[in-house]
UniProtKB/TrEMBL annotation:
All copies of domain NmrA-like, residue ranges: 2-263
Pfam families: NmrA (PF05368)
Protein name, as recorded: Putative nucleoside-diphosphate-sugar epimerase
Gene: ndse
The species this protein was found in: Pseudomonas nitroreducens
């Protein structure tokens, strides 16, 4: 049995769809704090269970009979999120889970400008010390993080994003889901760390050129003000820990922390990671 936390998020949904396409519906248990949000998956035949990170009993019940657990990193302030991850790892160990797959993030080092790097660094360390077999999957920034900026540029002709001068090897949810499904369903991944990146590292100018080529008209790149974006996030109702975290990600991007390109998507899926051009074509010409 494979259990997946946070099955209602974008990555969780992409992985669930992939596992379903592989005929594994009856072998997958999806968990969420509110199982009602998994009603559609339950109707398809997936097992669903309540798993509240603050409710040890619900974690124990959700993980009974599970062989492989996919722990998708949650969303909360750093200290809370770290403790949530530790609670899940502890519950997995108590219930005899054979292997934990954790979705980490690229460059979780002490030198990272991202304040969220500490979450992944501490979770990785705790997981390695747990005694449970593990696979750590360090995902780069998702290409979908660019969607709002690309769609605005489609109308305005200006691709504006903080940290635009730094190159990032953006990766699609499709590629990450395919790679993680391979990790979940095939052997040979015990105590391994994979870096899931796109096929190329691009800065804002290069992405604007690609978008312009797809649209057939010029698109100009602009390194946007972090302060302006922080204000827009706050106006949209983002909690302060999210605003600070996102700004730190943009700072890390601008400094080139996410520019390394890894072959691991291809090694795990048997095909090259999706190019930015292909991703943009899917986005603007669905």
């Amino acid at each position: 049995m494979i259990a997946i936390t946070a099955g209602t998020g974008n990555l969780g949904q992409a992985i669930v769809e992939r596992l379903g396409d592989c005929g594994l519906i009856g072998q997958v248990r999806l968990t969420a704090r509110d199982p009602k949000r998994l009603r559609a998956a339950a109707e398809e035949g997936f097992q669903v269970a309540k798993a509240d990170y603050t409710d040890i009993g619900s974690l124990d019940q959700a993980l009974q009979g599970v062989e492989v657990l996919l722990l998708i990193s949650g969303t909360a302030p750093n200290e809370i999120r770290i403790q949530q991850h530790k609670s899940v790892i502890d519950a997995a160990k108590r219930n005899g889970v054979s292997r934990i797959v954790y979705t980490s993030f690229i460059n979780p080092s002490t030198r990272s400008r991202s304040i969220w790097a500490a979450i992944h660094r501490e979770t990785e360390t705790y997981l390695r010390q747990s005694g449970v077999k593990f696979t750590i999957v360090r995902n780069n920034q998702y290409a979908s993080n660019l969607d709002q900026f690309l769609l605005r540029a489609q109308d305005s002709g200006i691709f504006a994003i903080p940290g635009a001068k730094g190159r990032v090897a953006y990766v699609s949810h499709r590629d990450v889901a395919a790679a993680i499904c391979s990790v979940l369903t095939t052997a040979g991944h015990d105590n391994r760390i994979y870096q899931l990146t796109g096929a190329e590292a691009l800065n804002g100018l290069e992405i604007a050129e690609i978008l312009g080529g797809v649209l057939g008209r010029p698109v100009r790149a602009m390194d946007a003000s972090p302060d302006e974006f922080a204000a827009s996030f706050r106006e949209a109702g983002f909690p302060e820990f999210m605003v600070e975290g996102l700004l730190s990600i943009y700072a890390a991007s601008g400094a080139g922390e996410y520019q390394s390109v890894s072959p691991d998507v291809g090694l795990l899926t048997g095909r090259r990671a999706e190019s930015m051009r292909t991703y943009i074509q899917r986005l603007v010409w669905p």
